[in-house]
Write a structure and sequence with these properties.
The chain is of the alpha+beta class and about 160 residues long. Helix content is about 65%, strand content about 20%. It has helices at about 1-10, 15-80, 80-90, 120-130; strands spanning about 95, 110-115, 135-145, 150-155. Strands 1-2-4-3 form a 4-stranded antiparallel β-sheet. A hairpin with a 3-residue loop joins strand 3 (about 135-145) and strand 4. The longest helix has about 70 residues, at about 15-80. The termini are far apart.
Length: about 160
């Protein structure tokens, strides 16, 4: 240890200043090569991935909204019972009755509509199909003058 100090002390002030400047330059070069450059390359790599991650997050948010909507639809359609069906039909302007002995299964609905305009019945059934996924499996119609029908309807879920 004292050997390099002795040699350094023997040098002129100008040489010592030059050696110190060279040592500082070497330290900066090492810091750049070993620290700055790898960190900068990693930062650039991460920055190039940010748009991909943002697009993925946006797609996931859309999918989460879709899932929530589908879950809400499933909860809504699973809660349809006889009273709700009759109330919905009355709100639409239909006189609907469910047979007293006819249990409502989660995948099957059977009911009778008396004296209803055909377009009104069709829009009611279409609403059940779109909003809750019911499909008409049986439909018996009887015309009642002047422009009304009686209908026996059986709906099922696919």
């Amino acid at each position: 240890m004292s050997g390099w100090r002795t040699r350094l002390a023997q040098r002129s002030r100008r040489e010592r200043l030059g050696l110190a400047t060279a040592a500082v330059a070497v330290l900066f070069a090492l810091a750049y090569a070993l620290l700055w450059q790898p960190l900068d390359l990693a930062r650039q790599g991460l920055a190039s991935r940010v748009p991909i991650w943002e697009a993925t997050v946006a797609q996931m948010r859309l999918q989460a909204a879709e899932i929530s909507e589908l879950q809400a639809q499933t909860r809504h359609r699973d809660n349809l019972d006889a009273a709700a069906l009759v109330a919905r039909a009355r709100a639409a302007g239909l006189s609907l009755s469910v047979a007293p002995g006819e249990p409502l299964a989660p995948e099957r609905l059977s009911f009778h509509v008396s004296s209803a305009p055909f377009p009104l019945l069709l829009s009611f059934l279409e609403g059940l199909r779109i909003e809750q996924g019911w499909q008409i499996t049986q439909l018996r119609l009887a015309r009642v003058p002047p422009q009304f029908i009686h209908a026996d309807v059986v709906l099922e879920r696919p």
